[in-house]
């Protein structure tokens, strides 16, 4: 593994032109070209880079296929879509010989994240990876690496946030880090606050000397810290329980996990926040509509689509349907407690917001009804235009039956 200081190093990679290789058949790894590639990565701002062979990831394929058959993917596509392709670099580039793996930091060093001092509104939290598009600069940096390889007469393709490549397995093979119990790649002394990407090439580069030793040991903080128990075993995630996935899935948010969602609006960092290596790296959440780590839930639920998309448009939102985001916001509002109803002013504003959504379409009315019941605002369900709605009545029945 090569590391290049601490400066800032979840849609398809920018593959670019693919020239035909005109290099003669090599007899071994090209150490000189490998050094040039590593230097190009450093110059492009990549935090960590490593090299691996491009043999198929057969063990990873077996794991993906088994977990998909068991339903653990929860409908998630990405590398589950076509494991035969995503675990074989040669399916993307015929004659693939080497992989250049890169890790790009997306959380700044600094203070431990806070809930926002002095916040007077109910807020929803945004996972660190979703606050900026870290893949854009990573793709650009990997493009520089690919250009170096093409200039030497080789073919090279860039992959970043791409379902055609198992980026975590690539990073582990390239010696960047080990596969943690929370399923993330953990870099020694750095943790997992990185996005990953790679370049596939037909160049024969010098690979990393070997994998990084497992650093988790007997630690269980991520397994015990997951609010829904989604980590069903070390390194095994049940996506059907994972909040980071559920906030992206259209339709009704599973009732059994609504309370566990807490204030999460988009993404979930809980299994990373409790990880000891990650606690050395922070990134303060800022309550701001323009650079949100925390988002005012009243603002989000009262604003129009264009205004909201200007803030959250870089998130993955199925079909660009903001009802998914507003659904999450309604659940988070229901979990907000004091900030939502602790004062007469706050209670009045929350009631106005919920009354509006109780008269909205069935999806949003359902979650507004749950939030009203959760906050003790049962009387809102008797409002004109609300009382008698089947979806509201069903939510009330579930609540009275003791459903969470």
| Arithmetic mean pLDDT | 88
CATH topology of the domain at 2-110 and 132-201: NADH Oxidase
Overall strand count: 12
Any idea what the CATH architecture of the domain at 2-110 and 132-201 is?
Answer: 3-Layer(aba) Sandwich
Main beta sheet: 5 strands, antiparallel
Provide the helix percentage.
Answer: 25-40%
What best-fitting shape do the alpha-carbon axes yield? elongated
Uncertain stretches? 1-20, 110-117, 283-290
Radius of gyration: 23 Å
DSSP strand content? 5-15%
SSE run: EHEHHHEEHEHEEEHEEHHEHEHHHHHHH
Order of adjacent strands in the largest pleated sheet: 1-2-3-8-5
What is the CATH top level name of the domain at 2-110 and 132-201? Alpha Beta
Structural category is alpha+beta
Task: Give the CA-CA distance, first to last residue.
Answer: 47 Å
Give the helix/strand layout.
Layout: E1 2-3, H1 31-43, E2 48-53, H2 58-69, H3 83-86, H4 89-92, E3 98-105, E4 123-126, H5 135-151, E5 156-160, H6 167-173, E6 178-179, E7 185-186, E8 194-201, H7 221-225, E9 231-233, E10 236-237, H8 243-246, H9 258-261, E11 264-266, H10 270-273, E12 294-296, H11 297-302, H12 305-312, H13 323-334, H14 338-341, H15 344-358, H16 362-374, H17 390-400
Helix pairs in contact: 1-5, 13-16, 15-16, 16-17
